[in-house]
Specification:
Elements (H helix, E strand, L loop, with lengths): L1 E6 L2 H4 L2 H7 L4 E4 L8 H15 L7 E4 L8 E2 L8 H18 L4 E5 L15 E2 L2 H18 L3 E2 L1 H6 L23 H18 L3 H8 L4 E3 L5 E3 L4 H10 L8 H6 L3 E3 L5 E3 L5 H26 L2
Parallel strand pairs: 1-2, 1-3, 3-5, 5-7
Antiparallel strand pairs: 4-6, 8-9, 10-11
Helix pairs in contact: 2-7, 3-4, 4-5, 9-11
């Protein structure tokens, strides 16, 4: 049986047990009991968490995130972790995981959006979606350079109405069938799919992936490096126009955010239920097509 290790902040804590249940019989899923907090804290403790919960050399996939703590502003100060330092820490974490879990592939999950208007004491503690987006871009660029696939939880959460948020940060609410409940289901569904994808990669391919090389099959059906990455396959699927002439990514961008008076990006949850349902349906269709294309590219 394969082994999956989940690591991250309270967003991960909202879906970890659901991923464990969803992958039962396919993979043993482990995760720390504590909140992994910010990037520097994760760097310091990652090896301890992994070694405590399982055998590091037996881990096949590490799915992890860090970011929401890093963008937090306390008492009007700058973000807890400067963005340049954040990108550097993410790279160090990737390398640390490769050293601790020499047989594991990695997946990095982007930070989810927040509802700025619900932060009641913004002078003491505040986050801004514009900064979350900036940190996500830095994370995506870092992971692309290191050959680590990205799980875009930000885009998945943006397909939901504002009523999905149980507080300024978390999505712990029961929603209509068109919008499966919050972080538990967003994270479970996407983490489960990405993990299933990677645990099917042949050992030789996984080894190159761990070394930061991008992989695909050439016309002869042979795996090779220096070609399209898993993310490139996903981007191709996302950029393909739908019946209305717009790409699924463009559909998700619509109604996501707009600048507020301070120039930051505030989550917009004012879409109608039908609009939100349509966006989520298109998002699911694109995601399903992505998974199929990825499996065709790297399946055994």
């Amino acid at each position: 049986m394969k082994t999956v290790f989940l690591m991250g902040d309270s967003i991960r804590m909202g879906y970890d047990r659901y991923v464990r249940d969803a992958l039962a019989g396919e993979a043993a899923v482990y995760y720390p009991s504590e909140n992994c907090r910010f990037a520097q804290y994760t760097l310091r403790n990652a090896h301890d968490w992994i070694e405590k919960e399982c055998q590091p050399e037996c881990v096949d996939v590490v799915h992890w995130n860090a970011g929401l703590w890093d963008v937090a502003r306390l008492f009007g100060d700058e973000p807890l972790t400067p963005i340049g330092q954040y990108a550097s820490l993410l790279e160090r974490i990737v390398l640390r995981i490769r050293k601790v879990c020499p047989n594991a592939a990695q997946i990095f999950a982007l930070s989810t959006p927040i509802v700025e208007a619900r932060y009641e004491q913004s002078e003491r503690f505040m986050r801004y979606n514009a900064e979350i987006e900036a940190y996500n871009r830095a994370a995506r660029e870092t992971m692309e350079r290191l050959g680590v696939p990205v799980n875009d939880l930000y885009a998945a959460a943006c397909a939901l109405p504002e009523s999905a948020w149980s507080d300024p940060t978390h999505l712990h609410t029961p929603l209509a069938p068109a919008h499966p409940a919050g972080h538990a289901n967003i994270g479970r569904r996407r983490c489960e799919r990405h993990s299933r994808l990677l645990i099917k990669i042949p050992k030789a391919v996984a080894r190159n992936s761990r070394n930061g090389l991008r992989l695909s099959k050439n016309p002869k059906g042979e795996y090779e490096s220096g070609a399209r990455s898993v993310r490139a396959v996903r981007e191709t699927a996302r950029s393909k126009p739908n019946g209305d002439g717009a790409s699924p990514r463009a559909v998700r961008e619509t109604g996501r955010s707009k600048p507020n008076e301070q120039g930051s990006s505030a989550f917009i949850g004012s879409r109608t239920q039908s609009e939100a349902k349509s966006a989520e349906a298109k998002h699911r269709a694109a995601e399903d097509g992505t998974v199929r294309r990825c499996r065709t590219t790297i399946a055994n």
